[in-house]
Specification:
Layout lengths: L1 E6 L2 H9 L8 E4 L6 E4 L1 H6 L7 H11 L2 E3 L3 H15 L5 E6 L2 E5 L6 H16 L3 E6 L2 H14 L3 E3 L5 H5 L11 H9 L5 H6 L2 H19 L17 E11 L2 H21 L2 E12 L10 E12 L2 H15 L6 E9 L2 E2 L14 H17 L41
Parallel strand pairs: 2-4, 7-8
Antiparallel strand pairs: 1-6, 1-7, 2-3, 5-6, 9-12, 10-11, 10-12, 10-13
Helix pairs in contact: 4-5, 11-12
This protein binds a DNA duplex through helix 3, helix 8, helix 10 and strand 9.
Length: about 425
DNA sequence: TCTGGGGTCCTAGGACCC
DNA sequence: TCTGGGGTCCTAGGACCC
């Protein structure tokens, strides 16, 4: 039996832990740049605020209804997520952390998984303050479906068997895990509207519509496991660092600064995972929502002659790629850097004819990066990253980093 | 004026090879 | 009028997820 434990309205719940006055009030959390609503409390959903709704479109609605609005505080959410996982881990020998707010647990050792799930749910709430819902089923896809029903009915814990027609019929096809907007439209055209009809559709038809991936989803709904538990996270293959700008950027110099920053950030990510990048891609784009403005987007990729984690070298190449795709006269909205085909740094292989890395340079780079890792990127950075950062993102309503920053620690009693 | 960021997997089609 | 067949590798793009 597989359990899916999913935190309810996770980012909102994190904010509520430290501000109990937000309970029972409509609350939303915005994406980067205060762009869209990415988390909504049940009260905010009831008002009709959609997932992903652009903030500038719903601002009035929020004001009229007294919705409390927050910028995202990923440091807080990441830390709360780790706490939830550490509590969940006590209840199952195998746990797969699927995302910041969801984990799969293998409960096949338990003879009363539903009771166990209820205890687990109560414990997570008591120890972390975060409410979760648990779905139980023989496969992951069914567990997702059970979880959805647990949330919908408000029961908190729900078990679904593959032959439970009532349960399957009550879930619309676009709510099935693995069926998005495009596939559900195509399925609707052949008369498939809910999970039950999908499970009973001819597999040849399903395969024509959505290939082997959709066929796997169908088998999972029938109770045939096709997706294994992945306890040990597979090493990442690529990594990306990108941001929309707080305001449009016209100048190459500003773009260079932004790209240098994203590159350093991406390199720090791969260094922390002891990986090396084999390739590099840089992309830039204008604001696709502005139909009144000229649009341009482009990207370019290069392959390093040997995998690297050297920020100086990668930044230099990223700027070169940027200059080759930059066209003046456009208002750029977003830029980004991808590091491709990451390999483990233990498998580093020297070039046959090139002297392998200048030791002093390697030591220098490592020293700077160590300072940055320990004291934060503001205390050690590379020249190309700039200081003013006019382009950086907006995040005007962020709450304190209660659990990860000494300055932001909650004080009780008021006087210090 | 303002519309997120970071991933994975699969497939079709082109380039190239013998 | 006729213009091979079968394979691999790579990339771009599409679909999905949270």
């Amino acid at each position: 039996m597989i359990a899916l434990a999913d935190c309810n309205n996770f980012y909102v719940s994190c904010e509520r832990v430290f501000r109990p006055s937000l309970e029972k009030k409509p609350v939303i959390v915005l994406s980067n740049n205060d762009g869209c609503a990415v988390a909504r409390s049940n009260e905010a959903k009831a008002i009709g605020i959609r997932m992903g709704a652009p903030y500038h479109q719903i601002k009035k609605t929020c004001e009229w209804n007294g919705v409390r609005v927050f910028s995202s505080n990923y440091e807080l959410y990441g830390d709360m997520s780790r706490r939830v996982v550490s509590v969940l881990s006590r209840f199952a020998p195998e746990i797969e952390v699927y995302s910041i707010d969801e984990s799969f647990l293998d409960l096949s050792g338990s003879d009363q998984p539903l009771n166990l799930s209820k205890r687990m749910r109560a414990t997570v709430l008591r120890w972390t303050g975060i409410p979760i819902s648990v779905g139980l089923a023989p496969t992951k896809t069914l567990a997702k479906l059970a979880n959805r029903l647990a949330k919908k009915t408000g029961s908190g814990c729900m078990q679904v068997d593959p032959d439970d027609q009532t349960a399957l019929k009550s879930v619309a096809i676009d709510e099935v895990w693995g069926v998005g907007r495009r596939l559900s439209a195509r399925l609707h055209r052949v008369g498939v509207r809910n999970a039950f009809e999908f499970a009973r559709a001819p597999s040849s038809l399903v395969r024509t519509i959505g290939g082997v991936t959709l066929e796997r989803t169908q088998r999972e709904l029938a109770g045939i496991p096709c997706l294994e538990m992945e306890e040990i996270p597979q090493p990442r293959k690529n990594t990306c660092s990108s941001r929309s700008f707080g305001k449009p950027v016209m100048e190459l110099e500003e773009l260079e600064e932004a790209v240098a920053n994203y590159t350093v950030k991406a390199i720090r990510k791969v260094r922390s995972e002891h990986s090396l990048a084999s390739g590099l891609q840089v992309f830039i784009m204008t604001n696709r929502f502005r139909e009144d403005q000229a649009q341009y987007s482009n990207s370019r990729t290069l392959v390093f002659d040997e995998p690297t984690d050297d920020p100086i070298r990668v930044v230099k190449n990223a700027k070169r790629l940027l200059r080759s795709i930059f066209r003046s006269g456009y208002a750029y909205k977003k830029a980004g850097v991808l590091l491709l085909d990451l390999v483990s740094s233990s498998s580093r292989q020297g070039l046959l004819f090139e002297e392998h890395g200048d030791t002093r340079r390697v030591e220098f780079v490592d020293a700077v990066e160590e300072v940055a890792a320990r004291y934060g990127g503001n205390h050690a950075f590379w020249g190309g990253q700039g200081i003013n950062k006019n382009w950086s993102m907006r995040r005007e309503m962020r709450t304190p980093r209660y659990t990860t920053s000494w300055e932001d620690l909650v004080s009780v009693g008021g006087k210090t």
